[in-house]
Description:
Layout lengths: L9 H17 L9 E7 L2 E4 L15 E3 L5 E3 L10 H10 L5 E5 L2 H9 L9 H6 L5 E2 L8 H10 L4 E4 L3 E6 L2 H23 L8 H14 L38 H14 L3
Helix pairs in contact: 2-5, 3-6
Amino acid sequence: xxxxxxxxxxxxxxxxxxxxxxxxxxxxFVAANDGNISIKTGENEVWAxxxxxxxxxxxxxxxxxxDAQGNVIQANxxxxxxxxxxxxxxxxxxxxxxxxVVHAHPTFATSFAIAGIPLTQPIMPEAVIALGCVPxxxxxxxxxxxxxxxxEPYLEYFDAVLLESHGALTWSTDLMxxxxxxxxxxxxxxLLYKAKQLGGPKEFDKQQIEQLYEIRRKMGLPGRxxxxxxxxxxxxxxxxxxxxCNGHGKGECKDDNEKLVAEITQRxxxxxxx
Length: 274
């Protein structure tokens, strides 16, 4: 399938990464040298943030270029790509429609990731339309292939994922869109957390969720979303199956993901007290 990614020039890509890094830092989405950002600027070319630097204080000479396998093409002395570039490369490999990836540790979203609670409760229209539900990829050791391997089952069906005991990852057609998904995810997590302190949120019912899904379809928003996954199951949508279904409108789950689906569903039911 041909890529539809609108590639940026090197200069614009570096500027965009720096700008988003500053936004992430100011909004406390990252602490110290946490987080990483990347932009695809060609079929075999990705610009990415380096390891060991604050994302709030980068300059163009910090940004590194890698190929589709994550091998360094260009990096100034003293800089090298983040060791977590592996999960970015897996997203690009499995999703040719994606042009940028953002990884951060926003406080509320990361708290849910640490607690092992996916963001599946439909509590506000904007979150349902923009994100649907946000599953949790099982824990993987940082800087290893465990993270991309455990992330991969979700890539075809979602544009935002919590990383268990780690943080959050979002991706989209361009960097601003990927970052906005991170903002939406964190806002959703914060509202859900605070609503729980007030006795628990009032959730939308199945009909209300379907209405919101239909709004998204009419808007023609890019990317993947639970609205395209579970509606033909008849009794469930991705907000009450925990985002674990990966059927193409047939409610069918791939055989190689059955164990993962069962584990995620069990965790959700335990958290909901069912």
